[in-house]
């Protein structure tokens, strides 16, 4: 799966030189993040205009429409994570009201899909990591802060400054004992 500054999203297969599917054409907002869900049957794309779009991967048409497309943040959606069996999605980004980390239910109508919004990260959240064993979300912000959220209780557990500049990467070890942050500095 490839995403570009021009907004295009294409899917390739290792043994074929040409694309299998073009999910988005050039001319859309820049792609900020994209992932497959754990089952591999859906892919999601976040973009610079605050949208998250999700497609079924087993499409037979060359330019399929997303089955879900939401504006999750008013400025940009920088990252997202599939939670559980992809029916719950977490997003990070920048919104005018500082609701910069959000939980969304993909099984309800778009008007009722926001499950919870966390007010955090002045100037926006840049990255997001899901810890399934502990049911935690870890987010990094533009000012170097890390926030840890309990999904079950829907509350912020910890906030601390890890860097002097924007957090650009988060990684979680498989046992969920440690996480690592990387910054713009």
Automatic annotation (TrEMBL):
<feature type="repeat" description="WD">
    <location>
        <begin position="160"/>
        <end position="185"/>
    </location>
</feature>
<dbReference type="InterPro" id="IPR001680">
    <property type="entry name" value="WD40_rpt"/>
</dbReference>
<dbReference type="Pfam" id="PF00400">
    <property type="entry name" value="WD40"/>
</dbReference>
<dbReference type="GO" id="GO:0043291">
    <property type="term" value="C:RAVE complex"/>
</dbReference>
<keyword id="KW-0853">WD repeat</keyword>
<protein>
    <submittedName>
        <fullName>DMXL2 protein</fullName>
    </submittedName>
</protein>
<dbReference type="InterPro" id="IPR036322">
    <property type="entry name" value="WD40_repeat_dom_sf"/>
</dbReference>
<dbReference type="InterPro" id="IPR015943">
    <property type="entry name" value="WD40/YVTN_repeat-like_dom_sf"/>
</dbReference>
<dbReference type="GO" id="GO:0007035">
    <property type="term" value="P:vacuolar acidification"/>
</dbReference>
<dbReference type="InterPro" id="IPR052208">
    <property type="entry name" value="DmX-like/RAVE_component"/>
</dbReference>
């Amino acid at each position: 799966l490839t995403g570009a500054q021009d907004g295009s999203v294409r899917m390739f297969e290792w043994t074929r030189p040409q694309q299998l599917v073009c999910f988005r054409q050039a001319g859309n907002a820049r792609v900020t993040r994209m992932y497959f869900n754990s089952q591999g049957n859906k892919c999601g794309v976040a973009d610079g205009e605050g949208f998250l779009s999700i497609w079924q991967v087993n499409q037979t048409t060359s330019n399929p429409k997303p089955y879900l497309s939401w504006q999750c943040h008013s400025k940009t959606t920088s990252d997202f994570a599939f939670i559980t069996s992809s029916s719950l999605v977490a997003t990070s980004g920048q919104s005018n009201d500082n609701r910069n980390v959000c939980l969304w239910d993909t099984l309800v109508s778009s008007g009722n899909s926001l499950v919870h919004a966390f007010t955090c990260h002045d100037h926006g959240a840049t990255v997001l990591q899901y810890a399934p064993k502990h049911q935690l979300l870890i987010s990094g912000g533009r000012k170097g802060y890390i926030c840890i959220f309990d999904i079950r209780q829907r509350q912020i557990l910890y906030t601390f400054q890890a860097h002097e500049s924007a957090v650009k990467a988060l990684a979680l070890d498989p046992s969920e004992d440690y996480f690592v942050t990387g910054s713009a500095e």
